[in-house]
TrEMBL record:
<dbReference type="GO" id="GO:0004252">
    <property type="term" value="F:serine-type endopeptidase activity"/>
</dbReference>
<dbReference type="InterPro" id="IPR023415">
    <property type="entry name" value="LDLR_class-A_CS"/>
</dbReference>
<dbReference type="Pfam" id="PF00089">
    <property type="entry name" value="Trypsin"/>
</dbReference>
<dbReference type="InterPro" id="IPR036055">
    <property type="entry name" value="LDL_receptor-like_sf"/>
</dbReference>
<feature type="disulfide bond">
    <location>
        <begin position="163"/>
        <end position="178"/>
    </location>
</feature>
<feature type="domain" description="Peptidase S1">
    <location>
        <begin position="208"/>
        <end position="453"/>
    </location>
</feature>
<keyword id="KW-0865">Zymogen</keyword>
<feature type="domain" description="CUB">
    <location>
        <begin position="24"/>
        <end position="137"/>
    </location>
</feature>
<dbReference type="Pfam" id="PF00431">
    <property type="entry name" value="CUB"/>
</dbReference>
<dbReference type="GO" id="GO:0005576">
    <property type="term" value="C:extracellular region"/>
</dbReference>
<feature type="signal peptide">
    <location>
        <begin position="1"/>
        <end position="15"/>
    </location>
</feature>
<keyword id="KW-0645">Protease</keyword>
<keyword id="KW-1015">Disulfide bond</keyword>
<keyword id="KW-0720">Serine protease</keyword>
<dbReference type="Pfam" id="PF00057">
    <property type="entry name" value="Ldl_recept_a"/>
</dbReference>
<dbReference type="InterPro" id="IPR035914">
    <property type="entry name" value="Sperma_CUB_dom_sf"/>
</dbReference>
<feature type="disulfide bond">
    <location>
        <begin position="151"/>
        <end position="169"/>
    </location>
</feature>
Length: 455
């Protein structure tokens, strides 16, 4: 049965007062109103947002002004890429932002004279809903005053802090368009790879899909690859910091996406919160392995160029790459980290770790060839959880597998989450199977080093 949307036009009349309400199955248009409030049904009475709801409002600014939205209260179910409940802000048919969670979003300033606010809820969990104040304005920035600089994430800082050599914006946008100074290269030379400032609990062996969280900031190279426009649950793949301007991930994570669609978050433990020390960067370009093919994922490797470079801190540090000639022996104990799905409980927003042991491919991971017959095993790493029922899951793709090689105390990157198991690739249940298959860093080292020298 096709659902019809009723369109109601509301003019500014004395009898009609704010707050305006979203109605299920209706599209409301508001014209000639300079300011007001928009809320979900029953919000002021303490009622939850209805399940199975779909309604929208288009607000038209008078006299060619723009529309500013301020979120006075906000509570929608948190889900990866807002796949459950979501509020979408659209202009001219283009979705500018998709919102969910119980965090209050930053203000929104439309690019045009009209913005559509569209709410969709699923039939599962209830949330409180929201109250949004809309205002017609001629401001060109959410910061208003010319003495303030608008960061890319819509935070406001004094304009005097722009191009001062310090990252005052979480996303580095206050320095990203400035002249690159020598201090960024000096930071690279003075930072030891694979050496966390916070010691990890390497005795924890619970699987990523259901286990204990990692010690916050004990894996400081862990990166979250995110889709721009989703807030705040934009994570969809993992990665690892190789240099202050380069992150490595799985090629299948970014294949087909434009760099402008991507952002990378580093220094995070709770991936939907901006913890102190979090740094967010744009992706200016990326390189896929020259032999990568989506149908077999043998060379499932990509390197992303960050803009501007990150600032090395206690929470943001690079991982080591294997040295020339270094090997990964069978039975080496390694650790995987990620924010992927947790079995039976949805997405994990706290970083998890899992202890995995390197195994012979034919013995532990050969079943993957039933769904990836063209896979060249010499370019992969096979690793298993000794409990034999765990491993990475959806959302962990591209995330790092690290080991301490040759009795070193430093952590070396040996793989990125790529294939999972045959079960993961053919069924909804994650983490179950004989072993997980990773894109090998050592066999792809030559290409990775070449990419680092070019990007």
């Amino acid at each position: 049965m096709r659902c019809s949307i009723l369109v109601i036009l509301v003019a500014a009349v004395a009898a009609q007062r704010s707050p305006w309400k979203l109605w299920n199955g209706m599209h409301l248009r508001i014209r000639g109103v300079a300011s007001g409030e928009l809320e979900t049904p029953g919000f002021t009475r303490g009622q939850s947002t209805p399940n199975g709801f779909q309604g929208s409002v288009t607000i038209h600014a008078p006299n060619g002004s723009r529309i500013r939205l301020d979120f006075e209260d906000f509570d929608l179910e948190t889900s990866a890429q807002c796949s459950a409940d979501r509020l979408m802000l659209q202009e001219n048919g283009v979705t500018r932002r998709t919102l969910c969670s119980n965090l209050r979003p930053p203000p929104y300033l439309s690019r045009s004279s009209a913005v559509t606010v569209s709410l969709t809820t699923d039939r599962m969990k209830n949330s409180r809903g929201f109250v949004i104040r809309f205002t017609a304005t001629r401001d060109s920035s959410v910061c208003g005053r010319t003495s303030l600089f608008e960061c890319d994430n819509l935070a406001c800082i004094p304009r005097t802090r722009v191009c001062d050599g310090q990252f005052d914006c979480v996303d580095g946008s206050d320095e990203g368009r400035c002249r690159v100074d020598q201090w960024s290269q000096q930071l690279v030379n003075s930072t030891e790879c694979g050496s966390p400032n916070v010691e990890s609990d390497v005795e924890v062996s619970d699987r990523i899909i259901a286990g204990e969280e990692a010690v916050p900031h004990s894996w400081p190279w862990q990166a979250s690859i995110q889709l721009k426009g989703f807030w705040p649950a934009a994570h969809f793949c993992g990665g690892a910091l190789l240099r202050n301007d380069l992150v490595i991930t799985a090629a299948h994570c970014v294949d087909g996406l434009h760099p402008n669609e991507l952002v990378v978050k580093l220094g995070s433990h709770n991936v939907v919160h901006d913890d102190p020390g979090v740094q967010v960067r744009r992706v200016s370009t990326y390189a896929l392995h020259s032999d990568y093919q989506s149908h077999d994922l043998t060379h499932d490797v990509a390197v992303l160029k960050l803009s501007p470079p990150v600032n090395y801190t206690a929470h943001v540090r690079p991982v080591c790459l294997p040295r020339l000639g270094q090997q990964l022996p069978v039975n080496t104990a390694c650790y995987a980290t990620g924010w992927g799905n947790t079995r039976g409980s949805g997405h994990s927003f706290l970083l998890k770790q899992a202890r995995l042991v390197v195994r012979d491919f034919d013995q532990a991971c050969g079943s993957i060839l039933s769904v990836q017959p063209n896979l060249r095993k010499n370019y992969t790493v096979c690793a298993v959880d000794e409990s034999n029922d765990a491993g990475p899951c959806h959302g962990d793709s591209g995330g790092p597998l690290v080991c301490r090689l040759n009795r070193s105390s430093n952590w070396t990157l040996v793989g990125m989450t790529s294939q999972g198991t045959a079960v993961t690739m053919t069924k909804a249940l994650c983490g179950m199977g004989t072993g997980t298959v990773w894109s090998g860093v050592i066999p792809n080292r030559k290409w990775i080093k070449a990419a680092l020298s070019i990007l």
